[in-house]
Structures are given as C-alpha cells and as structure tokens.
Amino acid sequence: DRYGFKKSTQYVTESEYDAWNATYNVYLDRRKKKWIEFMGREGLLVNRRLDKEIPVRFPARSDKTKRYIRKGVPPEWRGAAWFWYAGGPERLRKHSDLYPDLVRRIEAGKLSESDGEHIERDLFRTFPDNIRFKPDSSPNPPPIPSAHDMQQQSIDASAHDSVLSNTNPNANLNIETPLIRSLRRVLQAFAIHCPHIGYCQSLNFLAALLLLLLNGDEEKSFHLLCIMTSIHLPGTHGTSLEGANVDIAVLMSLLKETLPRVWTAVNDVRTGDPQTATRLPTVSLATTSWFMSVFVGTLPIETVLRVWDVLFYEGSKTLFRVALAIFKMAETRVAQVRDPMEVFQLVQTLPRAMLDANRVIE
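Structure for RabGAP/TBC, as requested:
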C-alpha cells in the first residue's frame, strides 16, 4: 500500500483492499485539494503546482480545523501535522540538545543491559510485513522513499513475499533497513530518557509508525513518542501498567453506560459473588493492547492513522471514543453471543477487518 504494508492480512483480502482503496483514493484526492485551499486561505505556503511540498506549519485550532482533521490529513502531510498539533516544535526548541545527547549516552554504553536485550528482541518483530522494516536481501538496502513517493508509487504484493519470521528475530542482523537502525536508536534513547518506563512492549510499534510517517526523522519521532507516553498515555507503559488498567476500567464503565446491549453480552462478572465483585469482564483483557499500542495491530493501518490524526489534535479522549465506536460497530454480532470466550474472540478479531476508516471515524 502507500505506506509499504502488505495489502492483504488474515482479515482483509487483497481484492477487498483494492475495492475499498479505489473509492478511498478519490476521497483522498478531494480532501487534499480542500486542504491546499484551506492552507492557502490561511496564508500557509503550499506549492500548488508541484504538490510535493510538506508544510511545517498548519492552520490554527478552530472548529473548521477540527473538522478537517477528523476527515483526514493528507497521507504525505501526516507526520508534520501530528508534530505541529502535538506541540512538537515548541518541545524541540526547549530540548534541542536532548536527543543528540541521548545518542551520545547510548554510544557511551549508558543503556541498561535488560532494556538493550528487550529492544533487540522486538526490533525484527516490528512490522515484518512492511517493505521498509523487513531486512533487505541485498547488501545495499534501497534508500528511504520520500513521502510523495510513498503516496504515488504502488508496491507490488510480490515484493513482500520474503518476510523475516517472527520466530527468529535475531536473523539477518547484519543487513538492516535504515528504519530498523533508526528504530533501535529511538527506542534506546527513550529507555535512557524515561527510566521509569525503560522499554515496554508496544513502544516499538508506536516509534516505528512515527518514524514511517515522519519519513525517518529520529529526533521528531523521539519527541512525539515522549509526548504520547507522558500526555496522551500517562502511566500506560509503566512497569505496573497502572495507567492501562485505569483506562480499561474507565472504558468498561463507559460501555455499561452508553451501550447496555453490549455490556450485557460482555459482562461475565457474577453479581453477588465477593470473589468476582472487583473483577473486570474477561473481554477487558482484549482491550489492553488497544490503549498500549494506540490501535496498531487492532485496526487496519489507514484506520489507525485516521485515529492518530484526531488523537494528536484532540487528545486522549479520542482513545475512548474510538474504543466505544468499535464496540458500537460490533454491537449486533456481540449481542447475539452468550459464551464469554466467543465474545472475547469477536472483540479481538472484528476490528481487524474495519477497513472503512471513514465509517469508524464517523
């Protein structure tokens, strides 16, 4: 696809993807033209003729801007828009020496052995179906394509056939793509900078997606990762996962309040039983990864990116709204099921086929 991922998954066939993408491309072209007009009216420079310029500034916050964000940022502008609306430029000005200093500390051996081992273990498990993350079989990996190239060029599905097996993450360490090397440095720098978190599973997917959409810019990806974990997901990736547990408890409370049919189906906690009175429904376990990975691996990639568009503009309430939207879209199927484990399986699998990003956002 335009981001280098395989079109087909276990839940979406290539033909299903192509059928959806044909109409979605028309939608993207229309939205891009509207964004260019909007940027022009706001006095923000956009090269209308070549249409390759990536803005560094975006319109001020307003109802109109929020509406445009919810309808999707042009794919090649995404990383820049995320960085702008998340407060990245100001953070970078205040901490201009932070990332280079952390890289020097990595080179000086300041990374803990435990964090280093865990990062290496997960590096090649990160997006093994993405052409820019899997190890290249040639001695000279291809250069990172520009954001414009990612949008314009279609990558043939056969190019993805040779994928590093997740069961052997240490294979081919001597032939790494540029983004794998960047991912290692960003995760190592984050582990040193945030010792209360260090390295936690799912951080590799957050950092990798940031690198992909920021066209390999390590420093900006690092700062956005810090913003995500401290502002949007406080405590979620800590050692105790306290923040994640709180988020899930809040989600279950909202589910009970707003979607009673779904709540009745998923609530397998027996009332009056003191041993289960404080336990959350079994289905809550399926939602842990929703918050920790911000829906990466839960929703198809374009839907994830649309969610991130809104997250960086509107904040963490977006996560709860999207989680409720998933349950709402699955309501009919879930309400028909009585077995808790079958409900669990439905909640795990149904979101992976929610290819229609517009429907999820609406």
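The CA atoms of residues 7 and 14 lie 6 Å apart.
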